[in-house]
Design goal:
5-stranded mixed β-sheet; 4 helices; 29% helix; Transpos_IS630-like; Transposase; alpha/beta; RNaseH_sf
């Protein structure tokens, strides 16, 4: 496959939920704003992938992590990859990222990052953006409320293709 027909995707998973992150808040000088910190334990697991070259994205929100869900996510990436192109999916070495998980996809390959190197995966900045702009300092009623908030956050992020490209593009990952 010629390099100009290869698309690099960055993939990762993140957990969002009731024990959410708190961030700094703007407040009037001399005041002390309150930030919500829940004690409940409901979470969603967010599988996300971005292709900074094209601005394409794929995501799945689930109640748990598994090899089957990872396979579904790769299937979505494979389907999103245009005919005649090949997707190289860069991911970490999580337990459900097995070596054979992409074997059935003719248009998709996997490259695993070195252990303990999240700074090499630009989708980590996406998780940070979602938290900072939509999900931090919030209280959630339950699982469905978390799913709805994550869906709104993701849709807000992907609504601007230029944002996707600028946040996730890396010079070392340009194939042309």
């Amino acid at each position: 496959m010629a390099l100009e027909r290869v698309d690099i995707w960055f993939q990762d998973e993140a957990r969002f939920g009731q024990q959410n992150s708190t961030t700094r808040l703007w407040a009037r000088k001399g005041t002390r704003p309150r930030a919500v910190r829940q004690q409940q334990f409901e979470y969603v697991h967010f599988f996300g992938a971005v292709c900074p070259q094209t601005g394409e994205t794929e995501a799945i929100i689930t109640p748990y992590l598994s090899k089957d869900i990872m396979h579904q996510h790769l299937s979505l990436i494979s389907q999103r990859t245009k005919a005649g192109r090949h997707a190289v999916v860069v991911m970490d070495g999580a337990g459900w990222h097995t070596d054979v998980i992409a074997d059935e996809f003719n248009n998709l390959s996997i490259i695993k990052l070195l252990p303990y190197s999240p700074e090499l995966n630009p989708i980590e900045q996406v998780w940070s953006w979602l938290r900072q702009h939509h999900l931090a300092n919030r209280s959630f009623k339950g699982y469905e409320d978390i799913v709805d908030a994550c869906s709104i956050a993701w849709n807000s992020f992907i609504s601007d293709t230029k944002r996707v490209v600028s946040l996730c593009r890396r010079d070392w990952a340009i194939m042309t």
